[in-house]
């Protein structure tokens, strides 16, 4: 039961981190700066690593799984609530796909200039 609670709080923490990331991306887009796919992937990876660092450690396992020997990576791989985490990533990517005012990728094409007909 404690493990499920930890996993749910980890998902909430991941959503908070990804929300901050989406705000940073939106700020850059509105400022006219392009965010590359590589930058976005690296920032998402940092958010996930932060969650792993905060919730899937030996100190946390001592409280919720005393006496169970596993690595931090094994603990993270054995987490529950994967469906909720998948839904979180789906929502995150869907929110990022919404066009924002000022995004150069969605700028309206300029109309060609034509000379007036005499």
Q: What do you see in this structure?
A:
The chain is mainly α. It contains five helices and no strands. The chain is rod-shaped.
Helical fraction: 55-70%
- Uncertain segments are none
Mean pLDDT: 86
Secondary-structure class: mainly alpha
The coarse silhouette is: rod-shaped
The rounded Rg comes to: 21 Å
* Beta strand count: 0
Notable features of this structure?
5 helices
Short description:
With 118 residues, the chain is mainly alpha-helical.
SSE arrangement:
Blueprint lengths: L1 H29 L6 H19 L2 H7 L7 H6 L4 H15 L22
Helix pairs in contact: 1-2, 1-5
């Amino acid at each position: 039961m404690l493990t499920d609670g930890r996993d749910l709080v980890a998902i909430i923490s991941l959503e908070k981190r990804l929300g901050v990331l989406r705000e940073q991306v939106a700020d850059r887009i509105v400022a006219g700066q392009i965010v590359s796919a590589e930058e976005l992937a690296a920032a998402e990876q940092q958010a996930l690593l932060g969650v792993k660092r905060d919730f899937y450690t030996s100190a946390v396992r001592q409280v919720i799984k005393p006496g169970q020997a596993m690595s931090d990576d094994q603990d993270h791989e054995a987490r529950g609530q994967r469906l909720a985490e998948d839904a979180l990533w789906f929502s995150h990517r869907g929110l990022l796909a919404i066009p924002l005012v000022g995004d150069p990728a969605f700028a309206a094409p300029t109309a060609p200039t034509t000379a007036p007909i005499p």
